[in-house]
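Listing 4. Sequential folding, example run.
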Amino acid sequence: MATIIHEKQDLTYLKWSHIRSSSGTAGTFLKATSTLGGKKTYYKLSNFDPVKGVIGHECINEIIVDRLLTLLGIDHLEYELINANIEIEGRIFSTYLCASKDFKKAGESKIALDDFYRTNSNPGESHYDFCKRMGWQKYIDTMIVIDFLILNRDRHGANIEILRNARSHTIEPAPYFDHGVSLLYSCMSDEEAASFDLLADNPCNNFIGSFSCYDNLNLIGDTKPLKYKLTESDKKFIFEGLDKVLSKTFISKIWEMIYERYKVYENL
């Protein structure tokens, strides 16, 4: 299960780089790396504003989706949520951030799916049909369902990576990752969360399919890629320890969102 470190950590030594949000949200997403004991760790912040500081909760979403995917038995990048002090441009901020390890194995290199598609697709071949031809249909179908459940707004072509292993001569998709711009990420208050339309078909930046997560479900037809049956009792597992960083309103609304959208998927 994705772990949470509530005890304050000193991570002021990290050097943050500015990665402009590809989803059109205000502010900036910041990333950093460190290498200890030969192992590389990646860190990222929720949405950051130079004046207000960390204003988003995308890192918390990563933990929620991490645990959801664990329940569903789906291979994914594992995140850790850390309460830390950080330094950005000479100012100290206190926030919860995400940490993850490099998922590449020895001999592996990675390439974004959109780049791989550009150099390997047939003329007129859709993104979905290309992945199907490559033998990745189950992976893509599962991703479509996941993104529907969490209303992932930012599954662009670089948020799907392909791993090439020179040793085993394999080419396959990487574990699912980067789910921060999902769920109630756009809500900044309990009032906004309480009024959010959980079943809305909000436009999403999808490389596979269209801007509609509902329409994308049509791509998978009658297949049911999820084998685990989500139940009300799973709420405890997903949100354990998050009551210290999320309000009851957010926890209740996010769970309702996941579960109601899951029931839509089950009733297709």
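-- end of first protein; second protein begins --
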Amino acid sequence: MSGIPTVAVTDLADDAVVLDVREDDEWAAGRAPGAVHIVMSEIPARLHDLPDVEPVAVICRSGGRSGQVVAWLNAQGIDAVNVDGGMRAWAGAAKPIVGDDGTPRVI
């Protein structure tokens, strides 16, 4: 997605607060330890639940959905960046992934 601000996974701390916009089943399979979960379709109604960080780093499986969310958030005047490569890149960089109970996961 041209023109969408991005951040490389390697530029984020392992415990970075990211906004995960994947579906519930994807979230349950494993996520970044500091992630906040808001399904993509719920973003407009849940702006008050966005992480209190700037810019908001938005992540999905591979970067497509999160790029759309970043474009929309930026249009609303919210500073947001797309996590390049999504959770696939997060896992590929050997960053920690946890499940619902906080135990390590591999996705």
